[in-house]
Amino acid sequence: MINDVRKTNLIKSKIPYIIERMDKKIEKTFFGQPKALFTLFQTELWERFSYYGMRAILIYYLYASVTAPNAGLGLPKTQAMAIVSIYGALVYLSGIIGGWFADRILGASQTIFIGGILITLGHIVLATPFGLTSLFISLFLIILGTGMLKSNISNMVGHLYAADDPRRDTGFNIFVVGINIGSLLAPIVVGTVGESINYHLGFSLAAIGMIVALFVYWFGRMKQFPELGNKPSNPLSQEEKRGLLVKLGVALVIILAAGFFVYRLNPANFVNNVINVLSWAGIVIPFIYFATMFTSNKVSSTERKQLLAYLPLFLSSIVFWLVEEQSSTVIAVWGETRSNLNPTIFGVTIHIDPSWYQLLNPLFIVILTPAFVWLWNKMGDRQPSAVSKFGLGLLLTGISYLIMAVPGILYGTHGRVSFMWLVVMFAVQMSGELLISPVGLSVSTRLAPLAFQSQMVALWFLSDSTSQAVNALITPSFNKETEVAFFGILGLICIGIGVILFLVKKPILNLMRND
């Protein structure tokens, strides 16, 4: 009887997958959540270990001198920041491909596994000492693989719950802890080995982390949710399958032609021109994608109103990620060039590897998440709405960057200052992230149209893509002369958007509740 009721609730919440609820294993709990969450939690932990481990040392590898004992590629810092930003943008932009494959061809489960294989190959290639060739092949594989894995594994978490299950937000909070444990371990392990011994050895450790993720996912899936996500929710018709190869061929020709045109335009500045083209594509494509979803005849009028409610949250998340994702570019450079890397603590002088600053983000997430989980559970139905959480999150994010402007105002921008400025900044900013990131994931799965289940989560990650595409254009302007204005302007923009969200909260909530 209980299982029949749960099946009915799943159908009402528009879950497209066939879930065999008579399987008692899926009914076991993990911190009061479905047992299957533990497998997805571990898989994402190790995938994020590989991703953030590589990212912790990537920018230093790009601009480290080719003649240094631990040699890098010797690129200018401005170009290195742009490459890291556009890489991040394409990682999340590729979520469109991953969501489409899951919804139309393979189902989420198989798409996740194939994506994991591609990521593993990418890290292995980056571990080889073949310069720019290894770099670009590696980034291509990781971009494509992460797009196939990232949005779909989050979507699988959403499908463990009915739409009105009160455990839903808490489940996503726990899932985000897995992300941040992996992110916390990565700079310590990969960062230390990569900076202190050899960058390529560090990239090898990232590959090992991804191999662990593949094993965890494969065996956990077979035991706990063998039927979940096995079938596409909106499979291709025979006619669509026949036209697919033609469309792929046309797309490939267009990409190659565009690349050739950009190269001929200015061969000496080819890399920068490609970055600019990809940046604008990363800004425009998400909005085209949203418009395509919104105008689809597969979306009902009720679902269309819910998409309208989703739009301001999507736009505000772009502003948040714009700041948050600068931890691997602007903050990474600031940490190496402006912070005291040999501080004396309680009479003992220690050395800080700049990549270690990347662990402050996940460290504060792991520390603060239990408090937020307790608070939301305690408040129950009285907790703030998703819109209010977003608004408050942006206010905190803005304050965090205003804090970063203070040392430049007080002491100038050409000396070194205490690393505690970064510690305080991350503590405030990560409080904001906990009000935005897990809530955004939860809202994305709750408001997703039936025909766009996986692709809706991919759309959420496109907010990150858009922000990093913008970062590829603006981060090269960051230097010691622009430091105060850079942090101050972005901080005030975040605060302004947060205030606007509070002002328009009521109409957004009305659209959300249009069931």
Q: Notable features of this structure?
A:
515 residues; mainly alpha; Growth Hormone, Chain: A; two-stranded antiparallel sheet; 19 helices; 4 strands; globular; disordered N terminus
Q: Can you give a write-up of this model?
A:
With 515 residues, this protein is an all-alpha fold. It has one domain: Growth Hormone, Chain: A (Up-down Bundle), CATH 1.20.1250.20. It is 73% helix and 2% strand. It is built from 19 helices and four strands. The chain has helices at residues 2-12, 36-63, 77-93, 95-106, 108-126, 131-158, 168-196, 199-224, 238-265, 270-295, 301-324, 330-337, 360-379, 386-411, 420-434, 437-446, 453-474, 483-503, 505-512; strands spanning 29-30, 33-34, 344-345, 348-349. The protein has a two-stranded antiparallel ribbon. A hairpin with a 2-residue loop joins strand 3 (344-345) and strand 4 (348-349). Helix 5 (108-126) runs antiparallel to helix 6 and helix 11 (301-324) runs antiparallel to helix 18. The longest helix has 29 residues, at 168-196. The radius of gyration is 22 Å and the shape is globular. It comes from Streptococcus equinus ATCC 700338.
